[in-house]
Structure formats: C-alpha cells, structure tokens
Prior knowledge:
By secondary structure, this protein is an alpha+beta fold.
Amino acid sequence: MQCRSLLIPAASTLAMVLASTSALASSHREAPFITGMPKVDGTDFYMFNSYEADRENYVTLIANYLPLQDAYGGPNYFSLDDEAIYEIHIDNTGNAQEDITFQFQFNTERKNLAVDVGGTSVPVPLINIGQITAGNNSAQNVLETYTVKMITGDRRTGTVQNLTDAGSGSETFDKPLDNIGTKSLPDYATYADSFIHEVAIPDCPMPGKVFAGQRQEGFVVNLGEVFDLVALNPLGDRDSRSNTIGDKNVTSLALEVPASCLTGENSVIGGWTTASVRQATVINPSPKGTDTTASANAKGPAVKGGAYTQVSRLGNPLVNEVVIGLQDKDRFNASEPKDDGQFATYVTNPTLPALVEILFGVTAPETPRNDLVTVFLTGVPGVTQLPMVTASEILRLNTAIPATAAGSQVDLGVAGGDFAGFPNGRRPIDDVVDIALTAAEGFLCGGDVNGADPGGEIGSCGTQNSQVNGGAIVNDGALPDPNAYLTTFPYLNTPLPGANNVAM
C-alpha cells in the first residue's frame, strides 16, 4: 500500500468508528452534562503547521468553544465564562501528560451606559448604543479582556509565566465584540484584525500571535441527517448534501507559536484542549448586578468557588461525540489522556461500522481494530509517534512535515495524499467527517505510510491486512469550501453578522 493509505485518518476514524450513535458534530453538545454549560463546551481543536506566507516555522493552535451560535443572538451575545479557565495542552515527550499549557482566562467589564429619559439617567438594555470601530469603542457597553499564562509542567503545579504584548508589554489582551450587525460594526474584518496581538512567549526567542474572538464555524457536516439514523448516501457524491451548520458562528482561542518552542526530543507534538470551572456555585435568589464572584458583597446572581474541575476535553475530532458510549461521555470529558486505557474497547470494537453495515450493506471490518489503535491511541511509528508511547487520545502533529499552501491543500488530508493534513494534525479545510467515515470502514487496514521504508506500519483489522471495501471514500455529502477560510492567522473566517444593514 502506498502513502495514500492515509495514516492518521484513523484518528478521526476513531471518532466515528467508535460511536454508538452516529452524530458527527465534532464535539458540539456531545455529553449530557456539558449541554447545560455552553460557555465551556469545546467544539473543535485544530493544530497544524502554519501555511501563511513566511510563517513556515510556526504552529497554529485553535480551540473553539460555545457551539452553534446564531449571529443574531442578542442582546448578550456570546461572552465566555469569567469564572472558568480555558487551556491548550502540549505533550512533547509521549507520556500523555502536559509539558506546556496555555491557559486563557477572561474578564468582563460592564460599563452600565445610560441615556437621559425625561431628566432621569436610565441604564440601557443593549450591548452597545452606537457604532463601534477598531479605534473607538466608546459606545460599547460590555468589554471583554483576557490573559494567557504559559505553564511548564503540570497544569496546576508547574511554573507559571505570562504571555505579554510584544509592543507594550501588557499582560492583558482585548477581545473583539461579537459581530452584532453591519450597522453597529460596518467593517468587522478590519475591526477584528486589530485584535490580533503579537506576543512575547516566555523562553521563546521569537514572538508569536494570539487572538480570541468570534469566528464563522469552520466545521463541515450534514448534521441533521447524520443524527437521523445516518440518513445518508455514504458512497455517493461528496457534495450531494449541504453543510447544515454553515450559518453558525463559534468563539475561537487561537495561538501561533514557533514550532521549536513546542517540540521536545523530536518533531512530533501531541495536543488537546480543556475547560475547567469552579466546583461550587451558590445561587443568589435576589441578585443585584451581574458579578458572579464574591466581589461587591456577593450581590450578583451567583457566587462560584472551590478548585477548578475539568468539564470539557477535546483532542481528535468526533471522539466523544460519536466514539464514546453515552454512559461514559461525562467521564471522558473529565478525564486526562494518560488514563485513556479505560476507553480502549470503544476503539478496538467500534460500533459505527456495524451500524453502517446494517443500514447500507457496507461490509464492516473485522475486529480488533489494530489500525485504529495505532493511529488513534499510539501514533504511527516514524510519523506521528512520540519517543515514549502512552496510549492516549490526543491530536498528533509532525512539525517537520512542511505545510501545504492554501491553494494546494487536499480536504481528505493524508487519505488524499496530502500529508500535511488530518490526521497529521488538523487544518480548517480537512473534511474530518469523510476521513473518519472512510477510515472506519477499513481504509487503513494493513496500511503502511512509508512503503518499503522502515516504520509507518498501521496495523490489521482482525485478520485483514488490506483495505476493506476497496478503499472507497465514505462521506456525509457535505464538502468544505476552500473559499470559506482565511489564508492568514487566525485562519477561520470572519463571523457572520447578526444583521445586514446600512449604517446611518
């Protein structure tokens, strides 16, 4: 088998392959508990070698939160949780534990703007009372800022240092307002670009970039029909249906870091994102104001306290969504990669292929799925495997494989011969649903990404050592549009506006 055998696609595969349901919304509303906490619901995690011009030695990390945002969702729109921490973790040794963590924490300031009504100053109910531009936010009623800490070692006990603005030295960064509409924000793209900050990264000789703000949803899936008992034509045209979440926005936490500041003994890194909240919440039956902390004599709607507790986790796409059984979804969100042995059965004996066989007559590969174990839990030797091998669900990237230019990227990633794509990391363009479906149906069985060269062996499917189903591309009919993404940081497109109006 040649390089097209795909290597990591199984990773996503995993996701699909392991599910007892057949939903594919990467990780949107994937577990019962997290549905009640959308502000800390991680939806997608991207990690790839930057393909913006002259950024070839950088890695981009994007963690998306707060799913399925309707652009018109005012008046509060989609601020993040001040009492939560959002983290991106990097493992560069292979022990499935974080060596570097980038921790985002947000702060919301409400200005309580008022207008004169009959001689009385009355606070307004809106998030803005006039037009907002990159250089003027005086009409903005709510301001969000954030800090980014870099933690070396354990996320809670390691060495903590702050990322700082490369120009001003400030440890605090501004977050843009969500895209209310064209009357409030007439040139949102230019406005949002002003919130891309060049940052100094501790112990790193070169500066990076950071951005936190609303973006257009980049994940592509025929979601409704997938949930409806996989009501698809899995061997039909890849563009036969629509992307049902193409009209949604999401909130992105994006970092661009020199690759040399992330890697360890070799060029491979593993990555995942988590969100954690305070253990305790006490509701105030008579709130005054909006604070959720103990400030202002605890007059707000709630007081939160206690240790931070992880409630969301995401590495490879689709895993908790469609791989992990319903009874274990909350446990997976609270777990750490080093403990993923407890979920191994979902990988070795996936349910999705069995379901597809029942519904469509597509032959399910034999078990155990050694191919998925290699790609999903250990990495492929010589390609995406770290020096130490600890079976764990994390997204793996070989930083030594050059990025493919935006115009030449293949949305099937490794499965399409583009080794800079999923499952070697994950780019916005990568059609992880189709890759996952294809891998789940045996595309990788017996594969070897290095051909005659040593290393690169993927593994068998039971006794099967060759592709099942003739290497067919199994798909959901929803195809990514290359024009729907930016070719520069932060890569995900300008968010859709809540309204299209002409400013007066």
